[in-house]
Every structure is written in structure tokens, then in C-alpha cells.
Amino acid sequence: MSYTVKLIVGLIGTALLCIFIGGLSQSISSGFAGFIGGLPFMIIAIIVCGLAIYDFWDECVRKK
């Protein structure tokens, strides 16, 4: 795949994943579990999104 295609597809995929995980975390925190009950999932969601962004940068942006 060309560099541009990898960059666009990787950006779209990473953005969709982070939006989904962020919405899920917000839903858990504002729902029945409350902020304290949703805090562990929120921390995990932040770590997962950070790892996804790093993987996007490592695979698509960084020149090897």
C-alpha cells in the first residue's frame, strides 16, 4: 500500500476506535456505575487509546 493510503486508513480506523472506546467509557461513567464505578474502565480506555495512537504512529507515520 502507498504511504498516503496507509495514513488515511490508519487515521480513520484509529479515530473510530478511540471514539467508540471514549463513548463507551462515558456511557459507563454516566450510567448506573457512576463516576467512581466507571473510573477503572476509564483508565483502561485511556491506556488502550494511547496504545492505539502509538501503534498508528509506529505503523503509518514513522518512516522506517
Largest sheet: none
User: How many structural domains in the coordinates?
Assistant: 1
| Structural class computed from helices and strand pairing | mainly alpha
User: Total strand count, please?
Assistant: 0
Helical region count? 2
Q: Which stretches of 5+ consecutive residues score pLDDT under 50? A: none
Beta-strand level of the residues, as a percent range?
A: under 5%
Proportion of helical residues:
over 70%
The average pLDDT value, as a whole number, equals 91
Helices and strands, in order, run as: HH
What global shape is seen?
Answer: elongated
Radius of gyration equals: 15 Å
Distance between the termini: 15 Å
Structure description:
α1 packs antiparallel against α2. It is built from two helices and no strands. It has one domain. It is elongated and about 45 Å long. The protein is an all-alpha fold and 64 residues long. It has helices spanning 3-30, 34-61.
